[in-house]
Structures are given as C-alpha cells and as structure tokens.
Amino acid sequence: MPIGDVLNTGLEGFNRASQGVERATAEINRATVQTQTDEQQAQQRQLQAAGSDEAATAPVSQPAKLNESLVNLKVEEFNAKANTQTIRTADEVLGTLVDIKV
C-alpha cells in the first residue's frame, strides 16, 4: 500500500472522528439542556402541588441518552488518537524512505 494512501486513510479517519466528537458534544449539550428544563418543570410542579392537595411527581429523565453520548465522545477520542498515530507513522516512514533514497 502506498504511503500516500495510508496518509489519506489516516486523515479521513481523523476527520470522521472529529465529526463524531462534534455530534457527541451536541448530543451532550442537548441532554444537559433538556435535563435542566426537566428539573425546572419539576420544581414548578412541586410549587404548584404545595399549594394544592396533588402529589408532585418528578419527570422521567433520560440519563441513558447522556451516558451513550459520553461513551460516544470517548470512542471518538480514541479513534482520533489512533488515526493521528497512523498519520504520524506514515510521516515517519515517508521521512525514512526519503532519507534512504538520498
């Protein structure tokens, strides 16, 4: 396999990992905002229930979505590191080949 192909593969993989990081951080942000909104709604319900005889129930949050996004973020971090190492190795090999030819 030519060195240029290895470099391109590493760059493509790094770009995919970068996009995955952006996706995961956006999902984490959405989940965090949703959790804050749910907490505010729960506080409002508790205040309303305190004024009436109704029992206040907390909303069901979705921590699984947040956890999944955090795991995806870590996976993409490992992907980025692996592809960075591929690029670094291809660069070193190319440098060695240039040194040998000269």
UniProtKB/TrEMBL annotation:
Biased composition regions of type Low complexity, renumbered to the chain: 32-50
Region of interest (Disordered), ranges: 32-63
Protein name according to UniProt: Excinuclease ATPase subunit
Natural source organism: Pseudoalteromonas byunsanensis
The organism's taxonomic lineage, starting at the top: Bacteria, Pseudomonadati, Pseudomonadota, Gammaproteobacteria, Alteromonadales
